[in-house]
Write a structure and sequence with these properties.
alpha/beta, Spore Coat Polysaccharide Biosynthesis Protein SpsA, Chain A, 2 domains, eight-stranded mixed beta sheet, two-stranded antiparallel sheet, 14 helices, 10 strands, globular
Length: 370
């Protein structure tokens, strides 16, 4: 066969494989939404919230917890905030709320995990709900999580929060962020105890407290920048059951209005996802070029067969991406933008690698991590 034909065929085969893999990484079948009428006794659950300069979000997050059920305990760890996060948290007048003043960050810890470790010492309940300070829960979601964990013998259950998709760049890039995450960490495999792959979404995680205690607390992953998946891996390696799914009921209220803000968010951990491996970076680059650039180049070729290959490849891309767009009620027109989106994410990944090799590392809220 002609080498040119085989080169352009490779992109088509990548998307065909994604489409026919039995674990269906493109699917949105792994999802869980709140049973709004469900109100269990939540005296066995403590919500643990690390908060660093969250004045814009904390009141909405705490107010939503009032509609979750009875006897829910909440612990907020003030992670060295310099704004009025804590006065605002106190003004929410939430029952069973404990606010802890976090101590200075020790060397070797990430800020979020150090805050969680401090808060863990105050949790006396059997279940722990790790909740980011910018996540708004729909009524009854904590009860729904608890019910599913108990009925399905899940020691850890997490939900990929519904990201904001209000502004142009959010609409263009945020559904793809979740789509690519599911390709990298197929939910079906992560939820199956027979496979080693493990994933979690750190914004909303319910787990049995005795398990994190058994692991030695959050010290077991103290320097992990991708702390959610690292925690899921530790728990799964111990033989416990984990589950991750999409949801409309845990909503991120953090804005990413500009391309720059999304770029920084992705670049902060993209190379970490590749284990800081030049080989994996090269492999990822080749796959992304075959998957996204070659189909566009095929449309510019003179040969009819190559053009058809490009069109079929783009059609397969669209078929794979449409379920994600439909899940988030986004226009299907964004599916035809996937090649451009893929190229942007590839450049963001390279930005992450360049930052790593030039010693700039990752930054978050005034803290810098090598």
């Amino acid at each position: 066969m002609d080498i040119t034909f085989l080169t352009f065929l490779s992109g088509l085969l990548i998307w065909l494989a994604i489409l026919i893999f039995p674990w269906r990484p493109w699917s949105t079948r792994e999802s869980l939404d709140s049973q709004s009428e469900l109100r269990l006794d939540l005296s066995d659950v403590t919500v643990l919230i690390p908060a660093r300069n969250e004045a814009l979000n904390i009141i909405q997050t705490l107010s939503a917890l009032k509609d979750q059920g009875n006897n829910l305990s909440v612990v907020i760890v003030d992670d060295q905030s310099t704004d009025n996060t804590i006065p605002l948290a106190e003004s929410a007048k939430l029952d069973n709320l404990l606010i802890i003043k976090g101590s200075e960050l020790p060397e070797g810890w990430s800020g979020k995990l150090w805050a969680l470790e401090q808060g863990r010492q105050y949790v006396k309940t059997s279940y722990l709900l790790l909740l980011d300070a910018d996540i708004l829960l729909q009524p009854g979601l904590v009860s729904t999580l608890l019910k599913n964990a108990q009925q399905n013998s899940l020691q850890m259950i997490s939900l990929m929060a519904h990201l904001k998709m209000q502004f142009f760049w959010e609409k263009l890039l945020m559904p793809a962020f979740i789509f690519f995450f599911k390709l990298l960490y197929p939910f079906h495999l992560s939820n199956n105890p027979r496979y080693p792959i493990a994933a979690a979404a750190g914004g909303c995680i319910l787990l049995e407290k005795n398990i994190i205690d058994e692991l030695g607390g959050f010290a077991c992953i103290k320097d992990a920048l991708i702390d959610d998946c690292s925690l899921a891996k530790k728990i799964k390696q111990k033989g416990f059951n984990t589950w991750i799914g999409l949801t409309h009921s845990a909503i991120s209220i953090r804005n990413y209005k500009t391309l720059s803000s999304i770029w920084k968010m992705v670049a902060r951990t993209a190379y970490t996802q590749l284990a800081y491996s030049p080989f994996l970076l090269l492999t990822c680059t080749i796959l992304m070029l075959f998957a996204f650039v070659l189909p566009l180049l095929a449309l510019l070729q003179m040969g009819n067969v190559i053009v058809v290959l490009g069109l079929v490849t783009i059609l397969l891309q669209t078929i794979c991406y449409l379920p994600t767009l439909q899940y988030y009620s986004m226009s299907p027109i964004y599916a035809v933008c996937l090649p451009l989106i893929g190229i942007l994410y590839l450049i963001m990944t390279w930005t992450s690698a360049i930052n790593y090799y030039f010693g700039r590392g990752a930054s978050w809220k005034g803290r810098h991590y090598q």
